[in-house]
Amino acid sequence: MLTKIWRVDPTAGNLEENAGIQEAATYIRDGELIAFPTETVYGLGANALSDNAVKKIYEAKGRPSDNPLIVHISDFQQAERVARSIPDAAEKLMKAFWPGPLTVIVPAADAVAKTVTAGLKTVGLRMPKHPVARALISAAGVPIAAPSANLSGKPSPTEASHVYEDMNGRIAGILDGGPAGVGVESTVVDTTQDLVTILRPGGVTREQLEAVLGKVASDPALKDKKAQPKAPGMKYRHYSPKAPVELVTGGLQELKQAVTRAKEKGLTVGVLTTTENANAFQNLADVISIAGTRADLATVAQGLFHALRRFDHYDLDIIFSETFPAEGIGEAIMNRLNKAAGTSRND
Ligand code: AMP
Ligand code: MG
After folding, report:
1. Structural domain boundaries, residue 297
2. Which of 36, 67, 104 to mutate to test ligand 1, by most ligand atoms within 8 A of the CB atom?
3. pLDDT at res. 236
4. Domain end: 146, 162, 185, which one?
């Protein structure tokens, strides 16, 4: 299959009438797959009301069929088409954080394709903020089911070139709207229980959720590696470069020691680091990948997946990574790094 690429300036006006977005929307209505930018990462979209279209997402990504997809909408009325009911807590969260990087799990309506929910009675709903994503959804006129547009297991794409690496020849087209903003995926919260529960940390922080709801719970599987995660996708290995990743706790000295020991053994070594610490590895590591600055963890979230993907352009034996405080956006960063390192459950 020929994969078309349309460049779209997200700051231009009247995006719904953009020729590339129009053509991409036609592909969605025809049951084909389109990758598009969101403010978190690039998504791989299909018509959420068509089982045949949604099946193609699982095939293109090599995604396990028990891992449900998030449905993306562009206006509040569409939520009523996709959800059977909207719990009060979900409504509060939608008002506070939509459009934005928050997915609410709500009871699913019958119209939603069964392949979207992977047989569950609930569905994940999100209204993205990115203007290209919103224009595509409204031009298509249907809700769009979309996971991240990477091959299953790989780091999520934050640029159109990452999507191209993984999906060229597998999908109808890519809308290139430049780099995604937040860099890590949406926060997924279950609103069908008494207490709203975080299933996956992401772009909206725990602190922001608690400011709206008071106390929120966490899926025990986020801490306890033996517990069964409530978001089926959280049990899979994910975000992994080809070489094994080891997280180094402590500070710069510990990271330097780890790299030095591996070099002494004759290994080819990559290091995932920050602008503050990169110089220390100049004559030590074989490949240095900088995620962002420790002074502002939002930049580390933005640069994390690109930094991880870069390692695959080299033949490395091992990658050592800095670690970050698991607070605010740091919670999502450490969740992704733990998965990349295979230090979470079932890996
Ligand atoms: P992504 O591939 O980044 O879009 O991941 C979406 C995440 O949301 C995965 O971990 C899914 O398992 C999870 N998810 C989607 N729908 C549901 C649902 N109805 N219930 C629980 N988790 C869900
Ligand atoms: Mg994903």
Report:
1. 245-341
2. 67
3. 82
4. 185
